[in-house]
Write a structure and sequence with these properties.
It is built from 5 helices and 7 strands; from the N terminus they run βαααβββαβαββ. The protein is an alpha+beta fold and about 170 residues long. It has a domain of about 110 residues: Aminopeptidase, CATH 3.40.630. Strand 4, helix 4 and strand 5 form a beta-alpha-beta unit. Helix 4 packs across helix 5. The chain is globular.
Length: about 170
């Protein structure tokens, strides 16, 4: 269960990025999403540390993960992953704290991820994968100028899934 937030959540995000701390990584691993988004739950923090999974690995966390904060409250509201695919593509991933979902922040965090990916690897293609059933995320990505370029099946932590690959187009 997520602890209650003492501060009200603003309706318009003012987001900033910082290096993800171990404490923030641990907090993110405990986020609980309602169905059908519960498949996006991370393993327990103990398991992530023990197995060196994703942001449970300090080197991987420093290289690829950023914490997203609301500038007005300094609260952790999400995370971004920037995964380089060679020299030509950066794949982005992101998540919002469960109580920050459905507030219209998806395109804002996506645009923030694009800005940081472009800064880190200028001229590289920026893409992402999204499960085909996740209409909420797809709408947010489309608002941030992503278009679907491919679809395929892939293995994920929660089984075989159908995904769209979406690529950013600076329109």
């Amino acid at each position: 269960m997520n602890p209650p937030n003492p501060d009200p959540i603003p309706t318009t995000p003012h987001l900033s990025l910082s290096q993800m701390s171990e404490q923030e990584a641990e907090a993110i691993s405990g986020w609980q999403y309602p169905a059908p988004y519960d498949s996006y739950k991370w393993p327990s923090w103990a398991k992530m540390l023990e197995q060196g999974l994703e942001f449970g690995d300090p080197h991987f966390r420093q290289e690829q993960y950023l914490a997203v904060h609301d500038q007005r409250t300094q609260q952790l509201v999400g995370y971004i992953q920037l995964f380089p695919l060679g020299q030509t593509t950066t794949r982005i991933g992101m998540g919002l704290r469960p109580d920050c979902c459905d507030l219209g922040w998806g395109s804002s965090i996506t645009k923030l991820a694009v800005e940081e990916a472009s800064r880190r690897q200028p001229g590289a293609e920026i893409d992402l994968e999204v499960e085909k059933w996740n209409k909420r995320a797809i709408r947010a990505y489309e608002k941030a100028d992503f278009i679907t370029t491919d679809e395929y099946e892939k293995h994920s932590a929660h089984g075989q899934v159908s995904v769209f690959c979406m690529v950013w187009h600076n329109l």
